[in-house]
Amino acid sequence: MAEIQLGVIEARFADMIWEREPVTSSELVKLAAEAFSWKRTTTHTVLKRLCDKGLFENNKGTVTCLISRPQFHSMQSRKFVEDAFDGSLPAFVAAFVRDRALTAEEAAEIRAMIDQAEER
After folding, report:
1. If you average pLDDT over residues 4-16, what whole number do you get?
2. Where are the alpha helices (H) located in 21-103, listed in sequence order?
3. Least enclosed by CB within 10 Å: which of 31, 35, 69, 85?
4. Helix (H, G, I), strand (E, B), or coil: what is residue 47?
5. Residues in contact with 24: Cβ distance below 8 Å, sequence separation at least 6, in sequence order
6. What is the greatest pairwise CA distance in the chain?
7. What are the CA-CA distances from residue 107 to residues 23, 77, 96, 112 (Å)?
8. Which helix (H) or strand (E) holds 63?
9. Which residues contact 53 (CB under 8 A, 6 or more apart)?
10. From CA 76, how far away is CA 81, in angstroms rounded?
11. First to last CA, the chain
């Protein structure tokens, strides 16, 4: 899947959609006016941009996600590890824990994730 980059405002607007979807475009116009002081045309322009990027679909005024928030964050995380650590998950984890200790709960969660990933 192609890389999807969002600006700060696009990301906030996408979060607004993910929190409420399915949501009507008219409801998004009201929400964006309150949250960002956007006019109707601005809301529709940004919504179209997010739909063109493949995140959402606007079907007859009802907006639904094509990529869920967890899927999107997973894609972004993989891209970050790929770019910053040459795709090395161990290098990423080492950098993350280098200057801080994991709590017992965090370590247990990570072990459980590794166990699940190995079973796949």
Report:
1. 94
2. 25-36, 40-52, 69-85, 89-97
3. 35
4. helix
5. 61, 62, 63
6. 51
7. 38, 19, 13, 9
8. strand 62-65
9. 4, 6
10. 9
11. 21
Residue 23 DSSP class: E
How is the beta sheet containing 23-24 ordered, strand by strand? 23-24, 62-65, 56-59
Q: To which residue do tokens 């993350």 refer?
A: 96
Residue partners of 84: CB distance under 8 A and separation at least 6:
92
- Supply 38's token pair: 């956007």
25-60 confidence digits (pLDDT tens)? 999 999 999 999 999 999 999 999 999 999 999 999
Give the integer Cα–Cα distance in Å for 21 and 92: 33
Eight-state DSSP code of residue 58: E
Q: What is the CA radius of gyration of the chain?
A: 18
User: Residue type at 38?
Assistant: W
What is the pTM for the complete model shown?
0.78
Give the angle subtended at the CA of 74 by the CAs of 70 and 76, to the nearest 5°.
120
